[in-house]
Amino acid sequence: MRTRTISARQSTTTVLPGLDVFLSNLPRALRGKRVGLITNHSAIDRAGVSAIDRIAAHKRLTLVALLAPEHGIRGTAAEGVTVGDEVDAKTGVPVYSLYMAEDRGPTPEMLKNVDVLVYDLQEVGGRTWTYVSTMALSMKAAARRGIPFVVLDRPNPIGGEIVEGALIAPGFTSFVGMYPIPARHGLTVGELAAYFNHAFGIGADLIVARASSWQRVQWMDDTGLPWVNPSPNLRSLAALSSYPGTVYFEGTNLTEGRGTDRPFEQIGAPWLDAQTVAATMNGLYLQGVRFEPVVMQVLSTASKFKGESIPGLRVVVTNRQTYRPVRTALILIDVIKGQHPEQFRWGPSIDRLTGSDKVRLAIDAGQLAPLLEDWDREADAFRRTIAPYLLYR
Predict the structure, then answer these.
(1) Average pLDDT over residues 155-184
(2) Which segments constitute the Peptidoglycan beta-N-acetylmuramidase NamZ N-terminal domain (predicted)?
């Protein structure tokens, strides 16, 4: 099914999110419709006004339902924490928690008064970002109900040029990876929606409101758009730069930095010889990155090493165009396991996060290098596959 798009009426060099474009150029067929909005605090217009407030105030739309992903409608709930249904205090609109739903997608009850389902959530560029799975499940719900699904597109904050990592292997799909895309996919949510809808037969009546004037070379700080933390532990563009790789440390017995001042920018464990590991990693001369030994203060609310002061390693990006976070994280895990064979352990989520058992098996066998070559070939093949779905140059 062809993807319909909405573009800005006038050409401009100012980057606008799809929210601004959609509301300034509302399709005639959607005027007067009752809207179900999948969103949270990360969905704001160029002036910083929330999608909830903008749509609720629109004279030709009626906001009847709000649907919240992981972290809740305000984005403050910790990872994995279920958030109950509520009523939005400002608009009086019911808020349904998709994270509480049986399959984490909208139920018929949630959509009973909805004529069009609208999605506006900030993408972060990594496959394990659960908002993308929420989008796919919501597209399926819209298709079943026979209502349009509108994606209010936003720039990929870490750019749209770099693709890195392997696709998910058969049998390893999950809520942190529903469809076979690379660990760093280089796409916007609108492009992902178009790909999912066509390549995997969702069959939704899909409309994408394009982000105006965005180019793939642009990162978030090139766009002039306001920054909002997309989740409690992604607090900076530096964190997003490493997230597609450092998220893998969730699947080990090291911390990925949750509960510290720099989640996903640093990793650590009480037994880590940070000085030696940093020296080893810096001696590899990986492009665009260096490693600094640090002492990490972990809050008592963290899931690992609560309240402890532990040795850690900070990932310092020196050139974001040449830095490859996925490759770097796997090499770092390989080095740490080699230097701490008695202490290092895999966690139960590693295969789910990496999309197969290949990483775990390759590192255990001392065969990471061939796997990285395979992953580079898979990323190149994906670039060719996704080319027909790209909306931006």
Answers:
(1) 96
(2) 35-237
User: Do the domain assignments include residue 373?
Assistant: no
Query: Which amino acid, 336?
Result: I
Same domain, 173 and 269: no
Q: Are residues 119 and 194 in the same domain?
A: yes
Q: What is the pTM of this model?
A: 0.95
Measure the CA–CA gap between 351 and 361, rounded to whole angstroms. 10
For residue 299, CA distances in Å to 2, 232, 262, 302 come to: 49, 14, 12, 6
Q: How many residues belong to the chain? A: 393
Per residue in 243-284, pLDDT (tens digit) is 999 999 999 999 999 999 999 999 999 999 999 999 999 999
Answer yes or no: is 231 within a domain.
Answer: no
Residue 232 lies in a domain: no
289 vs 284, 294, 317, 349, CA distance in Å? Answer: 10, 16, 4, 26
Whether 108 contacts 146, CB under 8 Å: no
Tens digits of residue pLDDT in 92-105: 999 999 976 557 89
Question: What is the tally of structural domains in the chain?
Answer: 2
Task: Name the residue with tokens 């989740």.
Answer: 231
Q: Is 327 exposed, middle or buried (0-12, 13-18, 19+ CB in 10 A)?
A: buried
Q: From 306, 294, 202, select the one nearest 259 (Cα to Cα).
A: 306
CA 270 – CA 309 distance, rounded (Å): 8
Range of the domain at 344: 237-356
Tokens of 251: 């699947």
**152 and 275 part of one domain:** no
